Structure formats: C-alpha cells, structure tokens
Amino acid sequence: MATTAKLELDGKTVELPIVIGSEGEKAIDISKLRASTGFVTLDSGYMNTGACTSAITFLDGEKGILKYRGISIEELSDKVSFIECSYLLIYGHLPNQTELKNFREGIKYHSLIHEDMKNFFNTYPSHAHPMAILSSMVCSLSAYYPELLKPDQTEEEKNGTITRLISKVRVLAAFAYKRSVGHPFVYPKNELDYVQNFLHMMFAVPAEPYQMDPVAVKAINLLLILHADHEQNCSTSTVRMVGSAKANLFASLSAGICALWGPLHGGANQEVLEMLEAIHADGGGYKKFLDKAKDKNDPFKLMGFGHRVYKNFDPRAKIIKKACDDVLQKLGVNDPILEIAKGLEETALKDPYFIERKLYPNVDFYSGIIYRALGIPTNMFTVMFAIGRLPGWIAQWKEMIEDPQMKICRPRQIYTGQTNVKFVPIEKRS
Ligand code: SDX
C-alpha cells in the first residue's frame, strides 16, 4: 500500500500522507492541503470526512461490526454491566475488582443533586419534553461545581466530574419524568445498583415501593450498553466540537443531548413508536406507510430504518430485536406493535427501494418496544438513549482533551454569496 496519495492540481503534483487505522480503515491526511495548494475539501454532512483518530469504538458498516475498545458488543452486552462497560469506554480497559468497586462507590456517593435544583424542575410546564429538561439540567449542574469548570483539570477533578455526571444523569432523568406525571421525586437508595436505582427513582411512589423486576433490570442494562458509544455520530461530534473550545464537560454533554434529540438521530426511537402506533391505529397495514416513505414528495421517512454507516444490519438492532421477544414474553406483555414492527421490517426488506438503498433497521427501530413494555413513556425514549450514550460522549471528550495536539474545531467553507455589494442608505432602499 502506497504511503502517500498524489493529487494533480493546477499543473502541480501534491503528495498527501495516507493513514491506515488498526482495523485497516484508510484515510488521506489533508491537514497540509490548504497551506500547500490554497484548496480546501468540501464534503456536505461529512459523508467522507474523518474528524479525528480514536481508540474508543470501531464499527464496520458493511460487515455490521461494532466493538468498544476492541471487544464486540455481542460479548459485552451478554457479559458485563453497563457500569463496567462505561469504565471500559472511558478508561480504556475493563475494570478489575478494585477499580470497579471504587467506580461504583463514587457513583453511589455522588447520586444526589443539590436540593435547590428541585425548584428548577418545578418551574417547567408538565408537558415540557424531558430532553429539553435534561440538556438544561446537565448544564445547570455546573453551577454547583464551579471548581470543576476550569479547562485544565487534575485527573482527580476530571474523574470526580465524570463520576458525578454518570451518577446524576439518572436522577435528572427520573426527576424529569416524575415532574411530567406530577408525582413526588424519589431519592436514590445506596443499596441498589445503577439500573435498579434508576428504575426505583422512576417508578417508586410513596405508597408503593417499586417491585424490582430482574427482567426489567437486565433489559435496561442491555439497552444502555448497546447505546453507549458509536464513534463520530452527530451528537458525539457535537460534544467534541463544543469540548474543543475547552468548554467544560457539563456544557459539552448538554450540547450532545440537544443534538441527540433530533428525529434523524436519537429522537428517532420516539418517532418509531409514534409511527408504529399510527400504523396500528390505521388498521395495521404497512403499504400506505411504505409508499409514503418511498415518495420523494412526501417528507415521511420509515423511522428506525437506514443509517449513515451501516449498509447492512445494525448489529445493535439484531440484539434488541431478539431481546424484544424475550423481554415481552417474560413480562407477559403481548404488544401488537411488536408484530407490526416485525411485519414492516419483513416487507421493507423485500422492497427494491429499501434493498437498492441498503436501508435496514437501526438501533432505534425496536428499542422503544422494550421501553414501552417496561412502562417508560414514549417521550422518555430519547432520554434513555442519552443515559446510555453518556459514557461514550465522556470517553470521546476525554480522549480529545487529553490529546496534546488538540485544536479547536473550526471547519472552513466555500462562500457562494453576493460579492462587492454597494451600500444603500435606508432612505434609498425600496
Ligand atoms: C442514530 O450516526 C450514528 O451512528 C447514529 C446512531 C448512533 O448510535 O449514534 O446510530 C443513532 O441516529 C440512528 C439513525 C436514527 N434515525 C432514523 O431512523 C431516521 C430515519 N433514517 C433516515 O433519516 C436516514 O437513514 C439517516 C438520517 C439515518 C441517514 O441518512 P443519510 O446517511 O444522510 O442517508 P440519506 O438521507 O442520504 O439516504 C440515502 C437514500 C435517500 O434516497 P435517494 O435520495 O438516494 O433516493 O435513502 C433514503 C433517502 O431518501 N432514505 C430513506 C430512509 N433513510 C434513507 N427513505 C425512507 N425512509 C428512511 N428511513
């Protein structure tokens, strides 16, 4: 394999270094392109542009492979807890007994939010979308830790911020839910593990403690692991973009939550359920909806289908689809929406429109069916995605700020507007 790429430009030949990743991914390093040619590259939506090198997550869209720190999600989702997986993503290796104990202790110790923050929740209208609340609350947390906002933190300060955010994101999410249903906030209990505590804070009520269901705990643990990281997706790129300005981790994660909210990204899991419910309400026929998805004049898309990188099955969707059957059967839930989802998938995967465009179910297609079976409301689905993705965002932010070569992200552009426009005073403007 050549070590440089030759570019013929204006009669000159420019040689650009070739970069090969540890899994064989190939790139042309254009960092010297503008200085040596005056040209920049143009790549709308960054379809062909690598923003960084990273040692955290590898995915192969053609082969449907996803690995965190070199370990497949099939193995991780079956053998570790979400907290172990979070430690792996953030610190680069699975924790030993002592590391895991200390990490868990830190998460347990930092699970409360300042009592004053309860006032923030109570000023939101009850119909406020929980993603709006979560993004603002994560950023507002920073007000209580002024000592953790300076850009160059010590390892201890950084780890303290990380542990606090991983622990408190559950409280903020559960409090947002409780606010929306008008129930009193439920405080974390130290004897519960990460997922158990989240379910307790979500569903316990003063008159009735939550009956911890191991099926639900296992299902949430699985879903959080499968959502934990996904290389340079839209929201992770947002976290890196904001963090590259040396904005603090609270602000960077808050921005990532906002990006994830988008219906083309993490917001799709809510849109999928609403789409499936619409199909169900319409009598359960798929044809009308598939025709709409294929109609260029119709903005409707088959939500939960397609992916920028996976041009084969999203490996996460395969695992979640299998878990759907398992969890609903164990919970004794018979949800017609699951059968509609399976039928829709089967029909779409035989349709030339979807086959030609290599559109398969993605991580969002089946996840909401499990959340719904667990009693989590549809508008909380993307919050669940954010809780899962938090360690991935943190790992990516940490990798970036610890890179001595880190630069502020500042893409270039090609200007296509008017040139040399004559100034007209207001009295002479038509
Ligand atoms: C996530 O990047 C990540 O890793 C994201 C994520 C993560 O873990 O962080 O995996 C999480 O965001 C998953 C994706 C969730 N979004 C959805 O399910 C929304 C529906 N999907 C589409 O909006 C779309 O597939 C995207 C946004 C996911 C990908 O869009 P691309 O890569 O820009 O592809 P495209 O829009 O250019 O589509 C290519 C063609 C187009 O048709 P043509 O113009 O070639 O005729 O496929 C069509 C699109 O119209 N198409 C769809 C479709 N998705 C793509 N047509 C109907 N329904 C769809 N869902």
Structural class per helix/strand content?
Answer: mainly alpha
Q: Which CATH class of the domain at 70-265 and 378-400?
A: Mainly Alpha
Helix amount? 40-55%
Number of strands: 6
User: How are helices and strands ordered from N to C?
Assistant: EEEHEEEHHHHHHHHHHHHHHHHH
CATH-derived architecture of the domain at 70-265 and 378-400 = Orthogonal Bundle
Give the distinct bound molecules: s-citryldethia Coenzyme A
CATH superfamily of the domain at 70-265 and 378-400: Citrate Synthase, domain 1
Low-confidence parts, pLDDT < 50 over ≥5 residues?
none
Classify the fold: give the CATH topology of the domain at 70-265 and 378-400.
Citrate Synthase, domain 1
The average pLDDT score comes to: 96
> Can you tell me the overall shape?
globular
Instruction: Please outline the major beta sheet.
Output: 3 strands, antiparallel
> What percentage of the residues does DSSP assign to strands (E)?
5-15%
The strands making up the biggest β-sheet line up spatially as 1-2-3
Radius of gyration: 23 Å
Number of helices: 18
